[in-house]
Amino acid sequence: MWFYVSAPEQTLRYIAVVSHGKAVGEIEREDGLGNADFNAGLMKDVAKFAYEIKELYKLHDPLPIATLSELYSISPPQRYAYVPETLFKDVTWSEQERLF
After folding, report:
1. DSSP codes of every residue in 24-63
2. 98 CB-contact burial (10 Å; exposed 0-12 / middle 13-18 / buried 19+)
3. Is there a contact between 59 and 16 (Cβ–Cβ < 8 Å)?
4. Which residues share a beta bridge with 57?
5. Rounded Cα gap, residues 7 and 79, in angstroms
6. pLDDT band for position 76 (50/70/90)?
7. Would you state the pLDDT for residue 79?
8. Burial 28-43 (b: 16+ CB within 10 A, else e)
9. Exposed, middle or buried: residue 13 (CB in 10 Å: 0-12, 13-18, 19+)?
């Protein structure tokens, strides 16, 4: 999952490796932000699934909105967009800063 940071930065800045979608009651650790409420079914109007962030990377050279548009035909902000194959090739994960 790739994360775009909106104003004032307007850059593609983070990449996360996430778990499969987890339904209510499937979250093992409830100490995370909103985990206990999600497991208790208190967030069913907001989300049907939760995703555990297993690894998080910060791009050394965040991609500005102009680059995303010109090189990859991505026009953020959007709710979601599939990452083009060329972007996968251009951003090498092993060269990014692993936050956890």
Report:
1. TT--S---STTHHHHHTTTTTTT-S-B--EEEEEEEEEEE
2. exposed
3. no
4. 15, 98
5. 15
6. confident
7. 82
8. eeeeeeebeebbeeee
9. middle
48 falls in which pLDDT band (50, 70, 90)?
very high
pTM: 0.84
Interacting residues of 56 by C-beta distance below 8 A, sequence separation 6+: 14, 15, 16, 17, 98, 99, 100
Residue 36 identity: A
The tokens describing 20, both together, are 């499969």
How large is the average pLDDT for residues 57-64?
Answer: 97
The number of residues in the chain equals 100
Please answer whether residues 59 and 68 qualify as being in contact, where contact means their C-beta atoms are separated by less than 8 angstroms.
no
